[in-house]
Design a protein that fits this description.
Length: about 160
């Protein structure tokens, strides 16, 4: 009987901890303020070989560099691919730009977007769009840009 009470108590503590973590965890999709989309957004996704932003993004990929199968991040979620996107962030950005007329995955439905999270070409094009059109996007790569690795700010001229 004592053993059963102990097991039930441990299970209740685990369940309570899981419920508390779920309640205090960040939202499933991040809230990014509305950004007025200029008509030339589609042109900005084109990757150029000698563009300073492309060079900077390539360097960011070497600083981040998560495996395609993902790695557990400090927030308990998995990060995937060269730019270490987490599923929610990746899907949110893809849907945001799709809504704005730039579809980086034209042959994929919304439910299939999670399958593309580790695709390096999609991630690179998406990251370029994010830095060009969403001002507060730097927070997603804050450690590489500012804190430990000191990559510095992207050349957005």
């Amino acid at each position: 009987m004592r053993k059963l009470c102990l097991i039930v108590t441990i299970l209740l503590i685990i369940l309570l901890g899981w419920a508390i973590l779920g309640f205090f965890s960040p939202r499933k999709y991040e809230i990014v303020p509305d950004v007025k989309t200029p008509p030339k957004m589609a042109e900005s996704v084109v990757l150029k070989q000698t563009d300073p932003l492309s060079d900077w993004i390539d360097k960011l990929a070497t600083y981040e560099s998560c495996p395609p199968e993902g790695i557990l991040d400090t927030n308990g979620r998995r990060s995937y691919g060269p730019f270490c996107y987490q599923l929610d962030t990746f899907v949110w950005f893809i849907k945001y730009f799709r809504k704005e007329g730039v579809d980086l995955a034209p042959n994929s439905e919304d439910v299939e977007l999670t399958n593309l999270v580790a695709d390096p070409q999609i991630q690179k094009r998406l990251t370029r769009l994010v830095f060009k059109w969403i001002p507060n996007a730097l927070e997603h790569w804050y450690t590489s840009i500012v804190v430990r690795r000191g990559l510095g700010m992207p050349p957005l001229d």
